[in-house]
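During the no-cost extension, the postdoctoral fellow (Dr. R.K.) reprocessed legacy sequence entries with the updated structure-token encoder. One reprocessed record is reproduced below for audit purposes.
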Amino acid sequence: MIDKETFHPLNYIKKDEYSGSMDGMRYLLKKVKMNEEDKIRVTIWPEPLGINKTPEGEKQWIDVPLSAEGVEQAADWLNEQYEEQKERWRESLRKAWV
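Re-encoded structure tokens follow.
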């Protein structure tokens, strides 16, 4: 689970993509421009492939404000998706090691 007390990638996201993984769930946070407003696009997908090799149908995403509050929303969403789809992530790990 992502600890919101220590999850502070905002300054990094403003300049580059920020990625990580949690027990089979990969994620990427990156700055995108939407209607002339900067946002953070938060994308998740299962192991083992990288984002560019993973079929679009296996990815999920949300857009949140490019702000500290947006980072908190991103962390909440990542934790929710991890919990709600825990079996999917575990299965992707099993496949990755076969």
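Residues 10-92 form one domain. The radius of gyration is 13 Å. The remaining legacy entries will be reprocessed before the final report is submitted.
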